[in-house]
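User: Fold this one for me? It's Tat (Twin-arginine translocation) pathway signal sequence.
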Amino acid sequence: MDRRAFLKQSGIAASLPLALSATGCAVTSVNDMPLPTVKRIPGTLSWVDGNAPDYQGGATWGHPWAEGELKKGEPLTLISEQGTPIPLQSWPTAYWPDGSIKWTAHAIPAGSQPGEQFKIIKGKPASPKAAVSVVEQAGNVVVNTGVISLHIAKSGQDIISEMHRNGSVIGRSARLVGLVQDAPENTPESPASVTAFTSSVDAVTIEQQGPVRSVIKIEGKQTTESGRSWLPFTLRIYAYAGAETVKISHTFIYDGDDQKDFIRGLGLRFNVVQRDELYNRHIRFVGQNDGLWGEGVKGITGLRRDPGQSVRDAQIAGVATPPLSEWDERVSSRMHYIPVWNDFTLSQLSANGFAIRKRTKPGHAWIDSDQGQRANGTTYIGGTSGGVLFGMRDFWQLHPVQVDVRNAGSDLAEATLWFWSPEAPAMDVRFYHDGMGQDTYDKQLDALNIIYEDYEPGFGSAYGVARTTDFTLGIMDSTPSREQTVAMARYISQAPQVVAAPQDYLNAGVFGGLWTLPDRSSPAKAAIEDRLDFQVKYYCSQVDQRHWYGFWNFGDVMHTYDTDRHVWRYDIGGYAWDNSELSPDLWLWYSFLRTGDPTTFHLAENMTRHNRDVDIYHAGEFKGLGTRHNVQHWGCSAKQLRISTAAYRRFHYYITGDDRTGDVLNEVINADKALGVLNPTRKVARENPMPGMAKIGVGTDWGSTAANWLTAWERTGDTQYRDRLVAAMKEIGEHPLGFFAGAFGYDVDAQKLLSYDLDKPSISHLSSVFGLMEINTELNQLIDMPAYKQAWMEYGRLYNADAQTQEAELGMSKRPNLKAAHSRLTAYTAYHSGDKQLAKRAWKEFDAKQEFAGKTGISSRLQTAHVKGPDVLNPIDEAPWISTNDASQWGLAAIQNLALVGDALD
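Assistant: Here's what I get for Tat (Twin-arginine translocation) pathway signal sequence.
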């Protein structure tokens, strides 16, 4: 099939805005959206950022299937844009209730170039030229891509004991290293004691072994010389057929004492074998915008005497120089006087500045080499006969970071990629204030009235939070060219991602099908689309203008704006980091599903990668719970299921096949058991209506629990999770008040809901804004439980109803909060009942401020004000009317109302 026929058969392409930046939305204002477009063609796959990558070291992604479309065991193959079969490895990641496959994950080999649009079809997949192989030995697991081989140690401090290419050992002893000090600052008056630690491997598991992709999982802890074991880690090594690179995904959990364990450095260290002459050894640092700093270990340019142009050109290009006998004798006879630069460092301690320096050896001064703003961080150390090119995803975004090369002039150079720089202040995760006298629940509730922070002594702990860092090691047989170096650097900093077309996600019926494709067929619909686009652009610009970067922060956004200071309320209690409050994750993922927009994808993925690690506890007394919004990500005492819920992370897992996200989905399967340990309403509902039982709210608690069980059921096909869902849905559906019951008793051991007597209905504005609407849509799609569906529809009909209707049917009335957000519940009931008047009511609720009135409507508000000094430190663009709560819930209501009752809008 030629390209023209391929495109014709595939349907009509959708033109979409190109991503602002794949590496953190680095723009200056919402007006900086570039003009190029990305084609998303129904029935085909494409790269999320549009163009096929210049360098492709292997790729993994997820693909949706409609119920009954793909049976277990049916083979799949990949067809390139030119009709050529591409080797493909496939595995199921989710199932429909009938046992057919709902989601698959796929991998293609390094170097394969399927084009810009390509297809998955049923059929036997092509085989790679050289399949990746895994051989388990007594002390090692040996992985061979056909180009390189790795010896992965089963015990000891080394993660990778040897790295080979063409029969030669290129690298050795890749291990994790770190430093910890016992005080936050090291001062002459009070010197801190610094202790080094390194990785200790406990277990090695082969998770996949080809033919296209192999995955080796390594678990262990960091260990000090005194024998202390801490900072448990999970590390995966990914090897693709035909690859000269290997990917490493490393996650650690902080389990230290925040009063005396101040991490001074975290890094990945390895040794590089050096065989070449000193003048044929090279250092490369990739900076910003494909900038490259490249020098020799022994420089032969700029000398008083010229060795010859061919010699100079060779060193600059990174290729072997002519023999010394062909050099100018005035240089070749004096080589011993030219300094050997043994040590090099690139440090990026903030989002806006890096520096490179070098020295000849310890005991002598460092020499400043150059500076820049945002380094890619990819580095090469080696010679013309081979070396290691290495880097880290989101390098400058996750500052403070650093790259050290030591002993480059020796036979065994040492490289360390620090993902917490030892030159930065020590990591300090202590809570940020002393409690300010809040020693009782009454005082803590009173404090909520001023700084919106839910404080409780001992609850602002970072014990159990995690962070993931992704590395790439390239085992090279020569110094890569400058062009190849920057191409590989782009691949390392943001690996190319494959996605399906929006129409295909929609046609598959995944995630409840709660969206439509963008539609500008009427002024009102166009106005909604304009604001949906504006919100994504605005938050993208805010990430960069507000410098929402850093090791613990990158990926999250702020909660509420301070119009007086022209800043987000970064320092005010519960108004700072959002931590998934009111579901920005859902808004961004549904936005991506309907548009295929790369900017939206990167915002959503960065958010998921942050929230799944930092905002959730993975160890300790709060394990399985997440933390409400706060100045610090772990600062709030509200530890709840509504933050750790799988509802927010399953999009990323299914769309990308990311294993770390899959781990977190597994962690929270039984997070509901934490309700028996920590009552989330302990400060406001102090009487237990069912002594001896826990309490589960029918909104955020149940919605989160249902999402966790639903995800486990579809990922495994294990009916125990379906049975739990059915029993709980029956209990809620048969309760006289349904969702207006507000809460149920909860048998933690049996994981069952229990009804208790109520004096009156309960209505909470938060119940439906943490994923309950979205999960209930899927539950009603997958499980036939008429009573439950009817109870949900009644909740949707009555929540925003007028006081008279509420009084007549509930015996009480409550002024609805988040009225526009809940309009989508009204729309759901209208759609499933066929009530056209209710559909019109949904749009009135959504348009509570009459934003469609007049000729301009919503579009008239889509403006920012430019503010510059002296009113602010840096020039910024602000839209004071935007808060993350409103943006998220407005966005979800807009998307879902268009899908459910779009015809009633006009």
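One thing worth pointing out: The chain has three domains: 3-122, 130-298+339-499, 522-904.
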